[in-house]
Design brief:
The chain has five helices and no strands. The protein has 123 residues and is mostly helical. The radius of gyration is 19 Å and the shape is elongated. One of its GO terms (cellular component) is plasma membrane.
Length: 123
Protein backbone atom coordinates (compact mmCIF):
# COMPACT_ATOMS: atom_id res chain seq x y z
CA UNK A 1 0.00 0.00 0.00
CA UNK A 2 1.36 3.44 -0.90
CA UNK A 3 2.49 5.53 2.08
CA UNK A 4 0.70 8.88 2.14
CA UNK A 5 1.26 11.94 4.30
CA UNK A 6 -0.82 11.60 7.46
CA UNK A 7 -1.44 7.88 7.07
CA UNK A 8 -1.62 5.68 10.19
CA UNK A 9 1.68 4.68 11.75
CA UNK A 10 3.69 7.63 10.42
CA UNK A 11 5.12 10.69 12.16
CA UNK A 12 2.90 12.96 10.08
CA UNK A 13 -0.13 10.89 11.10
CA UNK A 14 0.87 11.26 14.75
CA UNK A 15 1.22 15.02 14.36
CA UNK A 16 -2.19 15.16 12.66
CA UNK A 17 -3.87 13.25 15.50
CA UNK A 18 -2.20 15.35 18.21
CA UNK A 19 -3.33 18.51 16.39
CA UNK A 20 -6.89 17.15 16.20
CA UNK A 21 -6.80 16.46 19.95
CA UNK A 22 -5.57 19.99 20.60
CA UNK A 23 -8.27 21.64 18.51
CA UNK A 24 -10.99 19.46 20.03
CA UNK A 25 -9.80 20.33 23.54
CA UNK A 26 -9.61 24.03 22.66
CA UNK A 27 -13.14 24.03 21.25
CA UNK A 28 -14.46 22.29 24.37
CA UNK A 29 -12.66 24.85 26.57
CA UNK A 30 -14.12 27.77 24.62
CA UNK A 31 -17.66 26.39 24.74
CA UNK A 32 -17.47 25.56 28.44
CA UNK A 33 -16.14 29.03 29.24
CA UNK A 34 -19.29 30.66 27.83
CA UNK A 35 -21.73 31.81 30.46
CA UNK A 36 -24.73 29.50 30.90
CA UNK A 37 -23.50 27.16 28.19
CA UNK A 38 -25.53 24.30 29.63
CA UNK A 39 -28.80 26.10 28.86
CA UNK A 40 -28.11 25.81 25.14
CA UNK A 41 -28.72 22.31 23.88
CA UNK A 42 -26.56 22.87 20.81
CA UNK A 43 -23.52 23.61 22.99
CA UNK A 44 -24.12 20.47 25.01
CA UNK A 45 -24.28 18.34 21.86
CA UNK A 46 -21.22 20.04 20.39
CA UNK A 47 -19.26 19.43 23.57
CA UNK A 48 -20.25 15.76 23.44
CA UNK A 49 -19.25 15.61 19.77
CA UNK A 50 -15.89 17.28 20.41
CA UNK A 51 -15.34 14.93 23.36
CA UNK A 52 -15.84 12.01 20.99
CA UNK A 53 -13.42 13.63 18.53
CA UNK A 54 -10.89 14.08 21.32
CA UNK A 55 -11.14 10.43 22.41
CA UNK A 56 -11.00 9.10 18.83
CA UNK A 57 -7.97 11.21 17.93
CA UNK A 58 -6.19 10.39 21.19
CA UNK A 59 -6.77 6.68 20.65
CA UNK A 60 -5.37 6.82 17.14
CA UNK A 61 -2.42 8.93 18.33
CA UNK A 62 -1.63 6.22 20.89
CA UNK A 63 -1.85 3.63 18.12
CA UNK A 64 0.54 5.73 16.00
CA UNK A 65 3.01 5.95 18.91
CA UNK A 66 2.81 2.18 19.35
CA UNK A 67 3.36 1.58 15.64
CA UNK A 68 6.31 3.97 15.51
CA UNK A 69 8.00 2.49 18.60
CA UNK A 70 7.53 -1.12 17.51
CA UNK A 71 8.14 -0.29 13.85
CA UNK A 72 4.82 -1.92 12.92
CA UNK A 73 3.06 -1.30 9.63
CA UNK A 74 -0.52 -0.11 10.00
CA UNK A 75 -1.21 -0.12 6.27
CA UNK A 76 -3.49 -3.10 6.50
CA UNK A 77 -6.55 -2.46 4.28
CA UNK A 78 -8.92 -3.52 7.07
CA UNK A 79 -7.32 -1.15 9.60
CA UNK A 80 -7.24 1.76 7.16
CA UNK A 81 -10.91 1.15 6.33
CA UNK A 82 -11.71 1.20 10.05
CA UNK A 83 -9.88 4.52 10.44
CA UNK A 84 -11.70 6.04 7.48
CA UNK A 85 -15.14 4.91 8.70
CA UNK A 86 -14.39 6.15 12.22
CA UNK A 87 -13.17 9.53 10.98
CA UNK A 88 -16.20 9.91 8.71
CA UNK A 89 -18.58 9.11 11.57
CA UNK A 90 -16.94 11.59 13.92
CA UNK A 91 -16.85 14.34 11.29
CA UNK A 92 -20.44 13.71 10.23
CA UNK A 93 -21.60 13.90 13.83
CA UNK A 94 -19.71 17.14 14.41
CA UNK A 95 -21.09 18.75 11.26
CA UNK A 96 -24.60 17.58 12.10
CA UNK A 97 -24.47 19.20 15.53
CA UNK A 98 -22.93 22.40 14.14
CA UNK A 99 -25.70 22.71 11.54
CA UNK A 100 -28.35 21.88 14.12
CA UNK A 101 -26.94 24.62 16.38
CA UNK A 102 -27.49 27.23 13.67
CA UNK A 103 -31.04 26.21 12.87
CA UNK A 104 -33.84 28.73 13.56
CA UNK A 105 -35.59 26.23 15.83
CA UNK A 106 -32.57 26.17 18.14
CA UNK A 107 -32.47 29.97 18.38
CA UNK A 108 -36.21 30.38 18.84
CA UNK A 109 -37.69 27.52 20.90
CA UNK A 110 -41.22 28.83 20.40
CA UNK A 111 -40.95 27.69 16.76
CA UNK A 112 -40.41 24.15 17.99
CA UNK A 113 -43.47 24.37 20.23
CA UNK A 114 -45.57 25.74 17.35
CA UNK A 115 -44.42 23.05 14.97
CA UNK A 116 -45.24 20.34 17.51
CA UNK A 117 -48.71 21.69 18.19
CA UNK A 118 -49.48 22.17 14.49
CA UNK A 119 -48.29 18.63 13.78
CA UNK A 120 -50.50 17.26 16.53
CA UNK A 121 -53.48 19.23 15.22
CA UNK A 122 -52.89 17.87 11.71
CA UNK A 123 -53.03 14.31 13.04
Amino acid sequence: MKELIGSPGTVSGLILRITQCGFAAASIAVMVSASNFSTYTAFCYLIASMGLQLLWSFGLACLDVYALRRKRDLHNPVLVSLFVVGDCNVITGSCMFICWGYSPVCKRPELLQRSRSSTLQAI
